[in-house]
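Exercise 3.2. Students should predict the tertiary structure of the chain below and write it as structure tokens, then compare their answer with the key that follows.

Predict this chain's 3D structure.
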Amino acid sequence: MNVLDNPKYSHLLKRQPFYHRIGKTLLYNWARFIFSWYTPLKVSGKNNIPDDSFIFCSNHNAHLDVIALSLSAEKNFNNIGMLAAKDYWFDSHLRRNIMKPIMNLIPLGRQSSSGRDITFNQTLELSNGFMQIDKRCIIIFPEGTRGSPNIMKRFRKGPARLAIGVNKPILPAVIIGSGKSWPKGKIFFRPGKIHVYILEPLYPQSFINNSDVDEKKSFKAAERMTKELEYKIKNKIKELNEQ
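Answer key:
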């Protein structure tokens, strides 16, 4: 079966049920309310947001980061997707039927046995199909997991490989304050200011070198793009810390 025809992933490619769309709209408005007074959100660099689909990448210190990025780009939860481990989020009945439609989860295979039945090319197909609708965007955290404020982990090449595969720009961002409002290991988040700095987008074609051997071209381009993404985010954090 073609992955685009698999009913497991219909939430990404077809118009979702009315109650899902209404529910996500209500959640988005609730988030706007919370981020206006409890954890006030300030956004800089909105002029850098492309007028088309893009892949949002930032540092990652708290579960609040997804909401902060969505609000920063003024993207309703109906129009934001996230890559998620297929074996964890899609092979569990409970997680698949509750979290998958709420978060617009896109499956990504990994080394576990149940996660190998979806290839990266299939993830690209689903991501591309998702982003073709209403200028939808995808959020990926290049560190791969939450870290501690001001301590950056090594960036993975996944976001760059995705950007090159679907030919969409990466929009780098720096989130300050979320890790203090909701430290890792805490159940509830507390009041605190959050600031999102949106940087200039990175376009895949700028990193593709025609002199590269064809079979390795995309991987080398992904390495260059990842290096530039990591530099931009780390340099911005350093700049903010020196102020």
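Discussion points: The first strand starts at residue 41 and ends at 44. Residues 214-241 form the longest helix (28 residues).
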